[in-house]
Structure formats: structure tokens, C-alpha cells
Amino acid sequence: MTSDEELQKRVLDELRWDPKVQSNEVGVIARDGAITLTGEVYTYAEKLAAERAAQRVKGVRAVAADIRVKIPSRLAASDEDVAERIARLLKWNSMLHSTNIQAKVASGYVTLTGDVDWEYQRREAARRIEELNGVTGISNQVRVRLPSITVSSEDIEEQIKRALHRHADVEASRVRVAVANGRVTLDGTVDALFERELVENAAWASPGVKEVMDHLRVA
What we know:
Blueprint: H1 4-17, E1 27-31, E2 34-41, H2 44-56, E3 62-69, H3 79-92, E4 102-106, E5 109-113, E6 115-116, H4 119-129, E7 137-140, E8 143-144, H5 153-166, E9 175-180, E10 183-190, H6 193-204, E11 211-214, E12 217-218
Parallel strand pairs: 2-3, 5-7, 6-8, 10-11, 10-12
Antiparallel strand pairs: 1-2, 4-5, 9-10
């Protein structure tokens, strides 16, 4: 079993290695496989990069990002500026321009609402907005519309399993998939937190999926 000290060192090494994490003020606390990130970064994107870096480290079972976003004056933007940037992004992004996503900005914190046809659109909106200067956080309240097509539970399950077998980073034999009435339940084990996200993404990408229940455990 990896000790807390060793796991802390691994996460710190990963943070220093990742060029997206530029701040030297990110601290790491490790306890029984759970990682808490502390300190300050300059952008929300950097905060998320630090969190994802920690999730990549083998032995990490959970990550809490207690990191403050302290935007320097050279990157500061008013809420009106941030809102205008988001509007332009939604208009010109080929994956999002046909959606009705709305954004509300308060002290740099962005709340997204609206409806989309696919989960990837919901996630793409947040992923693109998190990269904008002036953003301090995101609450993604965008909803995925119920699919207009009917796909049998057996077909959905087969599609997900095939997708997992195609993915080089996922050991598909250790993931169990069950589907009932469009609800997907994922169970089993993965080696790292980022693999868990890959499996969940594969489930959401399958037509006919209404909900994903993620019960995967990090080995």
C-alpha cells in the first residue's frame, strides 16, 4: 500500500511536471488515498488542471480541490467582459452554436443553464468556458433533453461495452455495465480516477442514455 508521504510526493511531482500548472503555491495533503489540494492559482483553468493532474496519479482515490483562484490584474475582467466572451464562444463553437445555453456571471462565477441534445455538448460548454480569463468558477446546470429515439437496454449495454473495449486506457473486463429504461449503472474497478471519467463519458455517448449511475471504485 502506498504511504501518505509517498502519495503526496507523487502528486507534487505530477503537478510540477504538468505545464498547465504554473503556480508554485499549490500544496498537497494526502490521507488514506484522499488528496486535498491547497493554495492559490491565477486562473480557474489552472485550478482544474491541478485537480486533473492529481487524479492521474496511481493510488489517488479522491481529490478535494481547496484551491483559491486569485486573478492577477493583468488577467482581470469585469463580469460584462466575461459574459461577452462566453456569448461569442457559444456563437462560434461548432458544437454549441445551435444550443440554447445561457450564462450568468457574478464576480467571475459562471452559472450555465439551458438544454442540449447530448451530454458532450453540456461538458464542452463548461470545458471551453473554464479556459477564459476572468472566470473563477462554473456551475453547470445545463440539462440533457430526453432522447427522441427509443433504444433497447440490450443495445445500449452492447454499445457501451464495445466502446470500452476500444479504449486503450480502460481495462474493460473489470467494468460491469447494467442498463434499464435508459439508466446506466457502472460498477467494478479502475486503476485511476481519470479512467473512471473515461468510462462515464463512454456511457453518456451512447444513444438512448438518460442517466448514468457511477459506482466505479479506484483500485
